[in-house]
Amino acid sequence: MLDIKFIRENADLIKEAARKKRLKVDLDQLLKLDEARLKLMKQIEDARAKQNLANSEITKADPTSRVSLILQMTELKSGLAKLEGELKSVITEWKKLMLEVPNVPDMSVPEGDSDADNVELKQAGEKPNFDFTPKSHLDLLGDSGLADFARGAKVSGFRGYFLTGGAMRLSFALWQFALDELIAQGFTPMLVPALVRPEPFLGTGYLPQGAEDLYKTQDGDYLSGTAEVATMGYFMDEILTPESLPKKIVAFSPCFRREAGSHGKDTKGLILVHEFFKVEQVVICQASHEESVKWHEKLLKNAENFVQKLNLPYRVVTNCTGDLGLGQVKKYDIEVWSPGENRYRETHSISYFHDFQTRRLNIRYKNGEKMNFAHSLNGTLVATPRLLVGIVENYQNADGSIRVPEVLKKYLNEDIASGNN
Predict the structure, then answer these.
(1) Predicted local distance difference test score (pLDDT) of residue 63
(2) What is the Cα 154 distance to its own chain's centre?
């Protein structure tokens, strides 16, 4: 959420931000409602002042005058109640529109309609040269019994899967490696809930716009698609000390997404699934654009170093305006090379938000006498089973077995050959 004062003073900038992000928001209507809100608040304030004055006069008045003053008080109360009702109605609509106002993308973000318009920053790593035709992860894992998609669909429904033996152990190895890497950098490890109340979803910007992609419980709570939501909710309505910033969290959780907007896309395999697991980098820092940019680059570097240590070929792209979420100022994606598809596939996203999320979540810090909303950032370090796709396809052997990356051998020191190991 943006500061309403900033919106009033920069209406054209906000309209341009909405256009760039390919989002619709009736900003003119919001400003009209805001004007009405301020006017009603002033009228209510004046009416309450008159009411207080009348109360004072009634206590001092003689019996004859008191009757007249009580009648005036009754009229004041009636008028005040009417104004408060009007204000309540205006604020309801005002809040609804405020939640639709997008954050302003950074000037360095390329304009575009979708992920097809993302701009490549660089490629890194050497693509493997096979003396055989490489298989897709679907065939590698399915043929060896390391994954079972048929039983997954039988038990869990569309996009369901089981991982067995070495594939399951490889997932644990990746999670542990990711935790070890960030803990060594001073990140605090946190196991966070996937079942989250609506407020953190509103605060992080996943509601109301992203409701169709969330699983909702019968109690009105939601299952989160990223550890970011619960981690940010952890600090909701808190005042932090400047000395405690930046907060550096490495959060792990199961994740759930309906993938409502991906009908017909990646219907087989482990790229788009409803249930998965993430190790997420979350940073809350002081309210400075330079500080946000510094940490954005740092989180990208962490993710790149992770992929490099796995010796996976990848590329980095800057996401275009049409591929940014409502609250994101800028986002990078890392895409790992998939030999089975002869293309790069997105595995990591790294974003910063300025105070968009913290303003919604009321996460502040006191700097001297001044209260500031902090800035927030997040970025994937590992998401499974998606990252398994890059590993098994790049590390496959002609006989269908899969080598284990060198950095993971302290967790899993054997090739992955079948569902029995």
Answers:
(1) 66
(2) 31
